[in-house]
Design brief:
By secondary structure, this protein is mainly α. Helix content is 51%, strand content 0%.
């Protein structure tokens, strides 16, 4: 299978193929190239195993806006991907410059609009970062 086909399949959700991509000569460079990178597709699909493989293969996560990608993971309800991104240096207090929305806004949207992951995101990841004054902080007493 040629590189273009492999990249197309990864973009369509076959994130397991990132292992094949990374094993190819120049695979790490392919994973970080393009308008939407393989790293971004891995975040989009919540594939933490693929992200860890990319990190181990030497992919440069510095090409990403980690705060924006953390917001994307939170919006999609992928708390494990969000945790991974925070481990890589994503700022939980990141704010979208255009809208003012934060990672917490994204997580709350998911909680309030269906996927059911927003609450897990708050509890498992963002709870450690919410100010105690927040009414959503898990340790705040009512």
């Amino acid at each position: 299978m040629d590189n273009d086909r492999l990249l197309d399949l990864i973009a369509k959700g076959r994130t397991d193929l990132v292992i094949d991509l990374l094993a190819r000569p120049g695979g790490s460079a392919l994973a970080t190239a393009g308008r939407v990178t393989v790293l971004q597709w891995l975040i989009h699909y919540g594939d933490v195993t693929g992200l860890r493989a990319a990190l181990a293969a030497g992919c440069d996560f510095g090409i990403l806006d980690l705060g924006a990608e953390l917001g994307n993971a939170a919006f999609s309800g992928f708390w494990k991907a969000a945790d991974f991104l925070i481990e890589q240096g994503a700022d939980p207090d990141w704010r979208n410059a255009e809208t003012g929305e934060t990672v917490l806004h994204a997580a709350l949207y998911v909680r309030d609009h269906g996927a059911g992951w927003g609450e897990a995101m708050e509890r498992n990841i963002l709870g450690d970062y919410l100010p105690l004054s927040s009414s959503n902080h898990p340790e705040k007493k009512n």
